[in-house]
Amino acid sequence: MIAFLVTILTLVAIAAILALALNLQWGLCGMVNFGLVGFFALGAYAAALLSLAGAGPALALLGAMVITAACGAAVAALSHRLAEEYLAIVTLGFGEVVRLTLLNESWLTGGALGLPGIPSPTLRLPGPGGEHVGFLVLCLIALALAYLVVERLARAPFGRLMRAVRDDDVVAATLGKDVVRVRIAAFAIGCALLALGGALHAWHFGYIDPSQFTPIVTAYAFMAVIAGGRGSNPGILVGAGVVMLLIEGSRFLKDVVDFVAADQLAALRLILIGAGLILFLIYRPQGLGREYRRSAASFPTVPAPASS
Amino acid sequence: MSSDVTSNPLVSDAALEVRGLRLGYGATEIVKGVDIAARRGAVTTIIGPNGSGKSTLIRGLAGLLRPLGGSIWLEGRDLTALPAVRRVAEGVGYVPQEANIFRNLGVAENLRLATEFVPGRQSSARERDEILALFPDLAVRGALAAGRLSGGQRQMLAMACALLARPSILLLDEPSAGLSPRLVAETMQTVREVCDRGVSILMIEQNVAAALPVSDQVVVLVAGRVRLQSAADRLLVDHNLHRLYLGEAA
Amino acid sequence: MTGRKYTLTRRHLLHRGTAAATLALAAPWVRPAHAAEPIRIGIVIPFTGASGVYGSEMEQAARLVARRINEAGGLLGGRSLELIIEDSESQPTSGVVATRKLLEVNRVEAIIGYWGSPIAMASKQLLIDAGKVMMVSCAANAVTEDPHDGLIWRFQAKSTQWGPVGARIMLNKGERRVAVLAQQNPFVISMVEPFRAEIERQGGEVIREVIYNPDQPSYRAEVEEIFGTDPDGVFIPGLLTDFTSIVKEYYRAGFDTPITSLSIAADANGKFIENVGAELAEGIHHFQPAPPLDSPNYKRFVREMGAPEDTIFLFAGNAYDQLSVAALAIEKAGTTEARQWTRVIPAVSNPPGTRVLDPVEALELVRRGEEIDFIGAGSDCDFNDIGDQLNRHFLHRVIRDGRNEKVQVIA
Amino acid sequence: MIAQLVLNGLVTGMVVALGAVALTLTYSILKFPNFAVGGMITLGAYIAWLVNVPLGLPLPGAAVLAAIGLAAVMLAADRFVFRPLRDRGAITLLVAAMGLSLILENICRLAFGNVARNFDVDPERPWRVSGLRIHPEQVTTAVVTVAAMAGLWLVLRHTRLGRAMRAVADNPDLAAVRGIDRDRVTRRTWVLAAALVALSGVLIGMDRAIDPLMGWAYIIPVFAAAILGGLGSPGGAVLGALLIGVAQELSVLVIEPNYRQVVGFVAIALVLLARPRGLLGVEEIRR
Prior knowledge:
- With 308 residues, chain A is mostly helical.
- Helix content of chain A is 71%, strand content 0%.
- The N and C termini of chain A lie far apart (49 Å).
- Chain B is globular, with a radius of gyration of 17 Å.
- In chain B, helix 3 runs parallel beside helix 5.
- Chain D has helices at residues 2-30, 37-52, 59-85, 90-112, 136-158, 160-170, 172-177, 182-207, 214-229, 234-251, 260-274, and strands at residues 127-129, 132-134.
- In chain D, helix 1 (2-30) runs parallel beside helix 5.
- The radius of gyration of chain D is 19 Å and the shape is globular.
- Chain D has a single domain (2-118, 134-274), classed as ABC transporter involved in vitamin B12 uptake, BtuC (Orthogonal Bundle), CATH 1.10.3470.
- Helices cover 73% and strands 2% of the residues of chain D.
């Protein structure tokens, strides 16, 4: 049981890094990244390929983060003139392009067969399953670093600028700030964090293939940010934990519930996840965090703030 | 805070009466308890510096914001709880600033929509002709998308649409905004004419110089509160008041 | 159709009732200290996602074995088999978490199922590290290639064994200029090269090869592309859903080039013909590793599964065999220690010995100390030294008038 | 060959067009991209299947019942999901729609399992018209799509509801001031959109097979079409769908077919760079 908890915590740590990255991009800066899983996959594959080529963990991680951040910057630069909804579909498209490339360029990525035997950095701690605990410690360190980076960015003048950009890019622009640069930088930093998550994922599983990187990963990250409260970094940690516990904890449901078939239970689980998401949005819009700022929420006759 | 002029609702000659109205977005209160009485058959103009809450106030009167407190009465009926979509049938006409017509719909469709969804306030053909006669500039092709009209034509179309639903009070949000000086004068003249035909008017204006001559009554709004409510001619001659309440805006 | 679904469900409920009772008795917090502890076996199979269609039949088959063995007194002198079933969601990451949970929380002795090569690939190291037995139903060669301490057993023909069979079937039909339309997935992709090699070895030619992504909105472009080259025949290894769409598209586009496919696509327990109707399915050749169709054991298995008599289960049989072989090996080794009983698997499943078809009978023989050669419901269950199955026979069938007709068995 | 590809592309585009138009309708009234369209396609197809196969009603009748059934579901969704969230901004609604899609898709899985299903229609061989292969289902698709589009055009242009919808889309505040009840218009928009999506689900089900993932496979082309045409513009959505359909089919002449889904995106990216509001998108009103 302890060992399984270690597994779950490792997954929570990785999920939390993804959620922090999304919070930086969307929560703080208002940039919807529906292609999150694409950047995550890119980071995982880059780290895996570099690790397999014999690069050390630090070099592999750095390489993955640089490559992914560059792609993120390119996507953000390409779509900087687009309204929120359009960025959503461009990033979604980018994610799809990544998936198809990983699937079809088998000379590099192993195609559908994936990349097995990825060497991972180890931190062997004493005791049974020590290497799992050791890896968890590495993930927690990475999470802590990611948290510090995002939190510092949020508190720095840069962070205030990002919030200004999110709340009203026209205002931010007239303030003479280089909105485009801020958006691109924030998006690229977010993508670098996604690559960090990807590298940890690749190392954790030791085997990656395209079917691990489906849009549901993006959905989970959004759920974590919503549950945690958009814009609130401490909330995000809680949110990622709650979401992963719901997803993985519901596995235990079928050890207890025995009156529906397993395939039906699996469908039921996803229904509950969807319903939980909606209920959270309706009844806990501020999420579990406290820094959620929202106005005009209680006026049914007020139209939604203009989306552009 | 109370205004200089207090009205007695029972014996009021006010078309629209506002008592202790508070409006805002979320926790932010912008209009902080105002009392206004817009006299029947008169032009009442609300002036005040930027950020004084004029636009919030008029949106609240139109029903686009739910009041945080206070009440709104039109011809003795309580409108406070009614949303915008119901106030029009009660006789509230509203011409927003700038986005005051359906840009992607034709001119004819705009005019048709003016009354199509307002139960019981259809104007007769004669009234209709009379109203449209006030706006000669609108003699354009009906299928023309309203967004392609000039700024002045749009303002005219918007007012015509509001009038077609035969309002008891017409709320105008800065009718002069974005118009050339010649058009401002024309617009103000039209406002006066409309009022003279028996429609009470409550308007917001930044352009005090243009608005005062056609106004009967002036309300000065500062920081969400009514600082002064008085007859327009009094304000027009009182240069101290001018400086004091209107500052550079005058 | 729906009617059958409901009876299955009712049957499910009955099984589940028993299972629930077993579970309740076995739950650690109510278990009396002296009661025999159940032997836990995990199952990781897909119930959702792209291959979600195969999970239920495998679950049902495994429960069948567990129930029969438990009713006959269990293993090792009265210990019952307890199954813990996890959904792989057709996804490696979920499969890994499921595997971890089974190993670390449920402390199972073996995990069976593993439909889908990526899931097995991602999970196998965990089982090797834990020293538990893994029994897979997937075909990618890589699963058994690396050293695995004799812990991994494949209850399925390897991908590379499938390809040449398809090639021979097409060559036998006289198709020499052939084309391949294959789904991008590890199982299918690894059979394409051996297919091409076999075609070329026998003097044929693969004139066009198109790989398509699973879950595409449509396959129109692929169909135009591949049939437009006017080959003698087209090999379409795919899965049921995409194959259904492809055949509909092919028919409506007016093509008539002969098609050869896999039975998981073109039969799929009769679902394919049900999907497209007899006219479209007419003349499609398909093949798969054959279960011992004529054995009484297989016939009874089909009956117990509540399916029509002529159903050819591919994966349900695997789950049935996996649990049977695991039970026999545990009984034979006299221990639940995985590293020990995994070594006696060939002893119960490979010749020599009495050929025995029924797991409960086989257990009897094992207890009496006899040498046995277990013949399963999915295959003969004979393995080589890296855990791959030997002597897979392939059944080649063709669809005529809405029915699958046996053409030949290919060794 | 090229003519055949263009024809195939047009038919693919038509299937996508219905969903894209529905998306654009809900977008113009509710101001958020409705990601639930994937789950709606799936549910619509399954309702039609339920009526068509187990209950044995002919497919046209099944399609009508599917439209009604899906409309009822979406009215409930509007009441319990979208209305409470209406003022929370587009992205909150969008994420809620994703959650709804997950629910709808898995309700289908819960009720019908993962096995692919098919309608009870006899497939037919194509006609050959001067070298082109045209099959009856393509004609059905074209007729249904064109009829639905024409009907929608009539509704939008020449009915009270159509004017109200366009007014709300154009300027929701002003529409309220003109006495147009946005909630009513919203509900009717859901009904129209659900009917279109259900039809599209039926056409997709005819084209390929019905399975719980079918909506997912179409969500990206549907969005691509709607955005290419300019969210909020029904004509644009049709144009975008046809363009994407044709471009995807033609792309196999130059690239491997398994990359053709990328083509749609490259096209979108290029068009959006040149015209950030899409082909026929309208300038949003800024206050």
